[in-house]
Amino acid sequence: MFTVLPDSWHKCLFFAIFRSKKKNHKAANQQETTLDIQRIVRYAISLAVTLVFLLHVGEVIRLPLLSTLENLSYDARLKLTLPEHVDRKVVIVDIDEKSLEEIGQWPWNRSVLAAINDTLFDDYGIRAIGYDIVFAEADIDEGARLLENMAAGPLSEDAHFIAEYRRVLPQLQHDQRFADSLKNRRTVLGFVLDSDTRKGSLPPPITQLDDKTLNRLALYRPRGYTANLELLQKSAYSGGFFDNPLLDDDGVFRRVPLLQAFENNLYESLALALTRAATGSPDIELVVGANERGNEIFLEWVTIGERAIPVDHESGLLVPYIGKQKSFDYIPAADVLHKRVTPERLQDKIVLFGASAPGLLDLRTTPLEAAYPGVEVHANIIQGILDGRMMHRPGYTRGFEFILILLIGLLLTFLLPALSALYATLVSAGLVLLLLASNFYIWTSAQMVLPVASPVLLVVLLFVIQMIYGFFVESRGKRKLAHLFGQYVPPELVEEMSEKMDDINLDGEMREMTVLFSDVRGFTTISESLEPKELTAYINAFLTPITRVIHENRGTIDKYMGDAVMAFWGAPLEDKQHALHALTAAMGIVERMKELRREFSEKQWPQIHVGIGVNTGMMNVGNKGSEFRVDYTVLGDAVNLGSRLEGLTKVYGVD
To answer: How far is the CA of 398 from the CAs of 250, 363, 443, in angstroms?
Structure first.
C-alpha cells in the first residue's frame, strides 16, 4: 500500500532539501572567504613591515632603531676582526702628567717645543711629525717685552746693553725659535675648520674648486676656522684639520673626513697630510662617481701615489682601528726633551704630538672604548693607510640594501605561511645565519661593509609576525578542526590536517576511498546476559582497541552504531594508500580480538567475534545533516557494498 503526498508537500520537501544544500554551499563559501581574508591580512601585514624597511633604506622615513642596530653590528664586526700583529709605524709623543711635572704646566713656551722638535729630527731621526694642537696665539715673553721697551727708551744709547739685548733676544722670541725648528722638516700643524670665527693662517689648499663643482659635491663646508700663527704655518711643511663633522647619531667616531671645503679651497685632514709628508708628498687624486642624471657627483676614492683610500660621498673614511687605547707606543715628551728614549723606539717613525694628561686630554667615543684619545684616532688612520687595511662602504650600498630587503620581504611573506612552525623556524634561522655568514665573509675577504642589521631584523620580525598570527588566528581554526574531527581521527592526523587546511573540502565531493564496517556477532544475546553497567564496560572494552587500530592506520571513524563501527580512509586528507591502510587495520582488528577473547575469559565475559567488511570505490564525502546537526560522512553505492560485505561474513562464517 502506498501513500501519496499532496502536491504542496512535495514543494515543501523540495524547498527544504534545496535550502539545506544552499546553506551547506553558503557555509563552504563563507569558510573559503574567511580563509582568503585571513591569508590576505597575513600577506598585508608582512608586506607593510617590508615597506617600512624600504622607506627607511630610501631615506623617506627614519627609524632610529635600525640605525642604532646597524652601528652596533658594525662595532661588533670591528671588534671581532682587530688585527693581531701590526708593524706600528706611528709613535705618540705625549704631554702626560710626568712631562708636566718636569717641564711645567701647559702651555709650554715654544722654545721648549722647538727643542723637542729638534731632538726628534736631529737625535732620533723621525720621518715626520704632526701636531694635534693649534698654535693660534702668539707666545710673548714678558722679559722680552720689557727689554724691548728698555732698548727703545732710556737705554737706547747704551751700546753694551744693545749688544747684549740683540744677543739674548732670539732666545726670548719663542715663536721664531719654534718656526725655525719647523722649517725644512716634514712638520704638519693641525687646525680646526668647524668654528664660526676666522683666526690664524690656513695652510695652502690641496686644490681649488669652482662653485659648480662644489655644489655638486656633498663635502662638509664649514663657516670658519681656527688656525695657526702665520709665522708658524708658513714655516711648517703643511697643515691638516683634525675636527670631525661626521659623527654618527650616537656620537661615536666611526668615520672621519679626509677632505673639507672652505670657500673654494679643498683642505686635507691632519692624518692624510702627515701620511703624505711621511711618504714623500705624493699628489692627491680624487676619484668621483656620478648619479644617473649626472647632476650630482660624489667621492669614491682618494689616491695618494699608489695608495687608494676608499671614502664615502662625504669623504668619510671608516677609521681602521687596531685596538683599544695605548695600542700605539706613547713616549713622554719630557723623556724626548731629555733624550731618555732608546733610538729604536723613534727611528724612522711617524710622530704625533698630543696630550693624555687630565685637563688636556682630547677624549673621543669610539666603537672600542667610550673614552679614547683623539690623537690615537689619527694614529689609527695613518697606520691603516700605510698598511692598506681600510674598510670600504661602497656607493651602491643603499641600492644593495633596498634590493635585499625587497627580496627577503617577498620571499618570507609568501613562503612562511605555507610552512609549519618547525620548518618556518628552520628557514628563518637558516636565512639569518646565511646573512650573517655571507656578510662577515665579505667583511673579512673584501674589506667591504654591507648592511646586515636591517635584513636580519626583517627576517626576525616577519618570522615573529607569522608565528603570532598563526598562534592567535590560525590556532582558532585548528581548534575548530580539532573539535570537528578530534573524535574521529588520531591527534597526529588532526595536526597534519591543520597544516593543510586549504586542502580540506567540507563541501560534498566524489573521491575514491575505502570504507570499513565492523559488527559484533550475537551481540543481542550478549547484551541480554550482562547488567547495564557491565554491558557498558563490555562495549567500551572492545570499541576502544578497534578505534585505536583504525587511528594507527590513518583511518577516520565515521560513527559508532551500537556494537558496530564504520570507518573510512581517503578523507578528509587524501590518502593514496587508503586501501592498504584499511586492510591493515582490518587484519589488526582481527588480531586484537584474539587478545580480547583471552582478557574477556579472565573477566568471565562472553566471548567476542566480529565480522569485517572492506570495500573500495567512488564515494561522496563531506558535511551532511540538518540545520541543527552536521556530520562528516560518506555515502554511495560503494559504501552500501561495504556494509553488505560485512553482513556476508555471517553467511560464510568468517571474520
So the answer is: 21, 32, 17
